[in-house]
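Holo prediction. Input below; ligand is 2-phosphoglycolic acid.
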Amino acid sequence: MTAKKLIAANWKMNGSLALVEAVTQQLTSLSSSVDVLICPPATLLAHFPVSQHYSLGAQNLSEHSGGAYTGELSAALVIEAGASYVLVGHSERRQYFAETDELVCLKMQQAVSAGLTPVLCIGETLTERQQENTEQVIAKQLAAVYASHPELLAKSVIAYEPVWAIGTGESATPEQAQTTHAFIRRQLAQFDSAVAAKVRILYGGSVNAANCQALFTQADIDGALVGGASLKPAEFMQICQSAKE
Ligand code: PGA
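Structure of the complex:
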């Protein structure tokens, strides 16, 4: 729905200084008609040169603002390292690190109050889809955030990532993705129609250079959250090029 697309890279626990260099090189020739966000491991954030070609994001943050929490990173720390965005509630965090909707809300609050834009990840598992519970799951994930702090969604990007499509090579079809994105926008409109019209909704789950174009032509798909393919600089660049206005 928004004019300019956002292509976000989620490197997960991958990458290296060499990849930072390769990706930043590739992106120097990118025009400003697409917004690019790179979410590398936090240790690499400060190694990215400041650039008008991309923004940086962390993949996670603590629900606390600071203190005795060994191993955790606060919003202030990732901002100082260069981040202006943060992924929150990625399905791998929900699945492997037991992140609940409640914890996701606390993290979003930390992010927004420190000035980071959260990328709120939502989506259903394969079982939930097979049981035709996709809309119910998504509605619950969004409602949890709205109920805790109604103003957070207006300051966020939403990433719809069906769990069955992440890292599997089996992307949702453009029609499946569009149907769910339209549902997400209708849900947001129930809270606030102005917010629904302006919030960017990204699709994630096995996006690559071959399937991105068909996804980007869908009315409610405002960009992509790219995992595996974002680790290949030339392919990631192709995806960004496909998203140009
Ligand atoms: P994938 O990952 O592109 O490798 O499926 C997407 C994500 O988890 O954000």
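Residues 10, 161, 166-167, 204-207, 225-228 surround 2-phosphoglycolic acid (CB under 6 Å). That is the main takeaway for now.
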